Amino acid sequence: MKPSRAVFGTQFRLLRDFIADSLYNLQYGYFSKQAPVGFLNPPIDFSTLPSRAAYFAEVQRRYTALQVAWLTPTEIFSPHFGASIARYLTTQHLSNNNNFKASSTSTNTGNENAHPPLIIYELGGGTGTLARDILNWLKQYAPKVHATCQYTCIEISPTLAELQYTRVVVEQGGVHEHQFQVVRGDAAEIETWEKETIDRRENVLSYRMEGEPCFVVAMEVLDNLPHDKVIYSTEKTSAGNTFSSSTRDEGNGGRWLEASVAENVVAVDGGVGTSRRHGIGSSAIFLPTGALRLFDTLHKVRPNHRLLAADFDFLPETVIQGENAPLVATTIDGVTKDYGSYLVQPGVADIFFPSDFELLARLYDQRCKTQSRSGVERGVEGGGGGARYMKSKDFFEKWAEVDVNKKRRKTRCRDGYDPLLEDYSNTAFLVS
């Protein structure tokens, strides 16, 4: 189904609304039409690759063979990427068990000393590879944690939601059937989490309240969240620098509202800070209002969550003007096709933004404090808040698996090149 002409009509639309429609519309959105992300079967055996050049050649060969738009780090480094995440989550989970009273966290086993369940929410679970790899690692290396683990993928795309359940439950012979579920919906919508709570109560897993500690995992989700485009003005008001709310033609027959005075834009503007804007003048800046909305929701519905998000902190060769401007691209036959505007036909291309992790950490903590002031209760674990960021290399140096026989990481090529650490150098983690 093609989008209606109203998509490119004369109506004013905020950029965040256009992006959400382009990527997630259930009829024609980029992530709804098909699964643009592929998965590798079999996975790459890095120990057989002689060199860095051989690694890149193998990745290109897989792209060509699969005929997919993208292969994410989760897919390329499977199962080792997921194993690293599993090691991190399990270590953090077990190290915090002593912070809770057994009477309020024990499962229905009747054992007062039982560990509370490891509760994981994965936002935008892609092809299900990460969930599968995490649960497989838990079953092999932490079977007691796996036995009570509760893993939920929250997925807006019906195509990907079905694929996730198939790959995690059906293709694994049902070994994760009592640990895994998929909930359809937008993770930034409170209604989606209310549905998740109802579904979980009906599940065979033990019931738990929304206030229990949990982890929220978001791999390459932040880059596809809606943004607002803002034009800052040099005119002064009593409130300081202001931003324009004018309109302009951007081609394709559309007129687009460039800035919003909505509360969430103002909130992000406050997070940017005057030092960041000094010297910008009338330049455009793309602000992560979609991420702010997600943070608000997470702090409201799961106040004792801990966030683990990874994404691109820099995108090369961006032709669209403005700070934090997006790349608009798709991949055809293994070759990337870039677009010079985000106003392409909805559903045709991916629209993804670099993540300013310093800003996101500040916004995350800001929203955490806001929810605390509004009366949202938090447990002794202190879920939310305390956000920090690190380069992906630093994260994987600590948490990636090491081959105990060869005494090296399982993603290392024979010449010493380790793409898990050295490829995708423009990515980082946000941790709370």
How is the secondary structure organized here?
Layout: H1 15-24, H2 30-33, H3 52-66, H4 73-76, H5 80-95, H6 102-105, E1 119-123, H7 129-141, H8 143-148, E2 150-155, H9 158-170, E3 180-184, H10 190-202, E4 214-219, E5 228-237, E6 240-244, E7 247-249, E8 255-257, H11 263-272, H12 274-277, E9 284-287, H13 289-301, E10 305-312, E11 327-332, E12 335-339, E13 350-352, H14 357-373, E14 388-391, H15 392-399, E15 402-403, E16 408-409, H16 419-422, E17 427-431
Parallel strand pairs: 1-2, 1-4, 2-3, 4-10
Antiparallel strand pairs: 5-6, 5-9, 7-8, 10-17, 11-12, 11-13, 14-17, 15-16
Helix pairs in contact: 5-7, 7-9, 11-14, 13-14
CATH superfamily of the largest domain: Vaccinia Virus protein VP39
How many DSSP E strands?
A: 17
**How is the biggest beta sheet arranged?**
7 strands, mixed
Into how many domains do the coordinates divide?
2
Helical fraction equals 25-40%
Note the gap between the termini: 41 Å
Characterize the structure shown.
- This protein is of the alpha/beta class and 432 residues long.
- The chain has 2 domains: 1-33 and 228-286 and 316-351, no CATH class; 34-222 and 292-313 and 353-431, Vaccinia Virus protein VP39 (Rossmann fold, 3-Layer(aba) Sandwich).
- The protein is 36% helix and 19% strand.
- The strands form 5 sheets. Strands 3-2-1-4-10-17-14 form a 7-stranded mixed beta sheet, sandwiched between helices.
- Helix 9 (158-170) links the parallel strand 2 and strand 3 (180-184).
- Helix 5 crosses helix 7 (129-141).
- It starts with 14 loop residues before the first helix and ends with a strand.
